[in-house]
Amino acid sequence: MTSVGTSVARKEGMDRATGAAKYADDLRFPGMLVGRTVRSTIPRGRVTGISLDFDHAGFTVVDHRDIPGENTIALIEKDQPCLVNGVVRHAAEPILLLAHERREALVSANVRIDYEREEPLYDPTRSEQVFKHVLIEKGNLERGFARADVIVEGTYSTGAQEHVYIETNGVIAVPEKGGIALHGSMQCPYYVLKALKVLLGGAVQDIRVIQTETGGGFGGKEEYPSMIAAHACLLALKSGRPVKLLYDRGEDMVATTKRHPSTVRHRTGLTRDGKLTAMQVDVLMDGGAYCTLSPVVLSRGVIHAAGPYRCANTRIEGRVVMTNTPPNGAFRGFGAPQTQFATEVHMDRIAETLGIDPVTLRLRNALKPGDTTATGQKLGPDTSAIDVLREAVRRSGFKRKRTKLAGSGRGVGLALFYHGAGFTGSGEVMLGSRAGLETTPTGVRILVANTEIGQGTRTMLAQIVADGLGIAYEDVAVAQPDTAVVPDSGPTVASRTCMVVGGLLERCARRMSEQLNGASPAEHHVRRGRLHVEERYEAPPGRQWDDQTYRGDAYATYAWGCDVAEVEVDPVTHEVRVAKFTAVQEFGRPIHPAMAQGQIEGGSAQGLGWALLENVVMRDGAMANAQLTNYVIPTTLDTPPMDVVMLENHFAGGPFGAKGVGELPIDGPAPAVVNALRHAGLDVRAIPATPEALAAAPRLAPSRNGETAAAPPANGDAA
Amino acid sequence: MKLTVNGTPREIDVHPLKRLLDVLREDLELTGTKEGCGEGECGACTVLVDGEPVVSCLMPCAQADGCDVTTIEGLSGEYPLQRAMMREVGAQCGICTPGVILAAHGLVEAARKPTLERVREALAGNLCRCTGYEAIHRAVLSAHAERHGTATAAAAAAASEA
User: Domain extents for chain B?
Assistant: First the structure.
């Protein structure tokens, strides 16, 4: 009996539906204190004085001098301090930590910080500090433009986005004999462990990190938990007692990372019949005050910036720069939603310029098996751009609606997109992930550091192992991620858990199977003792990547999607209602179809929120609307009925043909909606497309064939 | 103050303005009720007070004096919507799930089959960032059918395949 491909009962059982599941805030330890973070109230300057205007009795107070190792949150760079030592680079930067038994005492403790202010920089176009610059070149751009009949240019921008996991960031640090245990809400226990080792130096021997039930992540609990964990550990070490540090919603929104705002400029050459001859793309992202993961966000962004299209002459240049706002960081999609928003909106403008319908334009240029991407990667047989496009057009009745809705104040638009599975470039090789499998008296237990944060990690990995071993799914257990127990199988990010870690576990299962000699794992365990196997990631033969030139196989493979959005715009309020949403996506093979569908529906809703509702308002370098009252995410009344189709095109390099599905669904909704708004007569080049923005948007006139009118193709540029 | 929680009479000595949410989580150790925003926007802390859904983060406990409060722990664990939320993957990360289940409780209990629009309206105050709500809607409709014995063999089969 196989479990892969069926929606088996989840490993979590009923705990999430009964209230029995314990999240960080539900845990208590004897003698536990509560922590508070005192943060900067200016965006840039120097701390000139700190005064604690309260009775210190019962308080633990920590500043940068209490850090035994390096004052940094180690990630790609070591530029971000754990606690401010003089220099403030953004608002809400952590300066001082307090702990006390009573939350009321903590809240009322008055800390005065004096500053010498400096002029903040908010405009990324004026920033001279570049965290990362990438250049991707293919063919000969000048020759490509010379062959073009038409050149279309455009600039597109996207706003920041807050993750709004419904469980805010929270951890508990517990001093243990000779060391410390950190329990918390997180995606990547080993990232936290690495950061704590650098912070605590040799002062603490045994550090272990344990993931608690995690109420959503979406990238927001990729790197940030290292910061809150560091703070809780410092307070716990100084007080000698367990310390819980939990952000309320306002602090979580003000202080933690957001999706990078972006501006993307396109200049595109085409023949009159709509074949791409040259693509020039310029990407600028706002990194905020510290580097965090910005270099790799930019990387994924630029690699996806040409969209799922074939063009012999391409030049993509990207920069991510420093500004005096809280650092931006990982968010589902990781740069690719920003760049593909630009490409897909630009494609509809090209279609308009050429007088070709948007489906035909895409069909003429969409990547096919054997084509090469901008980095020169030759695509395999699991390349489904054409398939998802055709299916989405057919299912949604796109062509009929395109004609029918023209001039009605309604509109229908589509977006074609793709998403690389696993770490970019040589990332997986550098990670060298390890996954383990051991026998138990009742079957086997999976040993990986990948976290279940709602997406179904435990269940999906157990399905792969069960089928790999040929045993019942029920006989597979999954260890709670605890760095003292599980090996470093890498972070839970980048749509990698199923394809990469699932792939390692499939190998573990097959190797264990050979060693069992026909016995069941439980029989072997009882009669001959524990059997343990571990597999380490190795690059597939033939995969090439050059980090300097950005040439080669950027990803192991890609997942493909086409979304169609149908919108109605209120003529008075300019509110947009998404009436219908169709998502056709191919990500190899769904291991657990119901959960895979949940990724598509949830990612699509999050993308629709980013497109239409979610507006991070920055004032004096800080988020001014840091509350759910006026940072609005989609509710049941804002989300459309969704028609989800999962096409299968198995990837030989993935477990049972699977790729990754976590991020793909958030690439398409924003451009599909904006293209639908364009069809409805509104020229939108930036998101969020709030009612205020739409009221000010230029109007387009519909033409007789349902396509919006634009200047006829001419020899000159259409801007 | 006195109140009945999940059928058991409780007497507690707390400040009358303490949030019902904190009384439940801290004084009564019923941590199944979650805090998502503390401002009544997300619905994660929804409980039933005298049968009506309320956001317990906005209710001073004095207001619940003498009332009958139901939290997620008060359901059996076998309640149709609890099972449907797991089966249909209406619960992903699970943090909003207790609130969603209690907010939809009235719909599931009512004899009349709710329309999809009615489900959307009833749950408009409960934010979920994982599911896009589609699976939650499926779970509520499926639970209603199960609760009232109207689930046909075909619907049950479809639900188990979904």
Answer: 2-74, 80-161
Report pLDDT for A709.
52
What local confidence, expressed as pLDDT, does residue A325 receive? 98
Per-residue pLDDT tens over the stretch A164-200: 999 999 999 999 988 999 999 999 999 999 999 999 9
Q: B80-161, which class in CATH?
A: mainly alpha
> Across the interface, do A19 and B83 touch by the CB < 8 Å criterion?
no
> CA nearest A37: which of A190, A224, A245, A268?
A245
What is the assigned CATH class of domain A132-161+258-424+552-711? alpha beta
**Residue whose structure tokens are 């998404």:** A578
* Residue among A166, A218, A598 minimizing CB distance to B95: A166
Strands B46-49 and B68-70: antiparallel
Out of A7, A18, A635, closest to residue B77 by CB: A18
Q: Report the residue of chain A nearest B122, measured CA to CA.
A: A636
Mutant choice from B22, B130, B137 vs A, greatest count of A C-beta within 10 A: B130
Q: Mapping DSSP to helix (H, G, I), strand (E, B) and coil, where does residue A408 land? A: coil
- Nearest-CA distance A19 → chain B (Å): 4
Enumerate the H helices of B3-162 as residue ranges. Answer: 20-22, 80-87, 97-103, 105-109, 116-122, 134-147, 153-161
**Residue B95's pLDDT band (boundaries 50, 70, 90)?**
very high
Comparing C-alpha atoms, which of A114, A121, A59 is closest to residue A84?
A114
Mean pLDDT confidence for B125-138: 98
Residues of A in contact with B120 (CB under 8 A): 636-637
The reply to whether residue A629 touches residue B77, judged by beta carbons under 8 angstroms, is no
Give the nearest chain A residue to B71 (CA atoms): A19
Q: Above pLDDT 90, what percent of chain A?
A: 95
Q: Candidates 3.10.450.540, 1.10.3520.10, 3.40.50.1970, 3.30.365.10; correct CATH number of A31-119+164-255?
A: 3.30.365.10
**Cβ pair A705, A679 in contact under 8 A:** no
Residue of B37, B92, B128 with shortest CB distance to A249: B37
Average pLDDT on B66-74 reads 98
Contact A681, A320 (CB under 8 A): no
In B, minimum Cα distance to A601 occurs at: B132
With CA atoms as reference, the chain B residue closest to A11 would be B86
| CATH superfamily, domain at B2-74 | Beta-grasp domain (3.10.20.30)
**CB-based burial of residue A575 (10 Å sphere; 0-12 exposed, 13-18 middle, 19+ buried)?**
middle
Q: Domain A15-20+427-536: which CATH class? A: alpha beta
Confidence of residue A711 (pLDDT cuts 50, 70, 90): very low
Mean per-residue pLDDT, A514-541:
96
pTM: 0.97
* Residue A548 pLDDT grade (very low, low, confident, very high; cuts 50, 70, 90): very high
Tokens of residue A651, six digits: 């990837």
pLDDT, average across residues B136-154: 87
Same fold yes or no, B2-74 and B80-161: no
Cβ-defined contact of A12 to B86 (cutoff 8 Å): yes
Contacts of A554 (CB under 8 A, 6+ apart): A303, A373, A375, A377, A420, A424, A425, A545
Q: What is the pLDDT of residues A593-650, one digit of tens each?
A: 999 999 999 999 999 999 999 999 999 999 999 999 999 999 999 999 999 999 999 9
Task: List the domain boundaries for chain A.
Answer: 15-20+427-536, 31-119+164-255, 132-161+258-424+552-711
Gap from B82 CA to chain A (nearest CA, Å): 5
Contacts of A453 in chain B (CB under 8 A): 93
Contact B129/A216, CB-based, under 8 Å? yes
Nearest to A17 among B38, B85, B116 (CB): B85
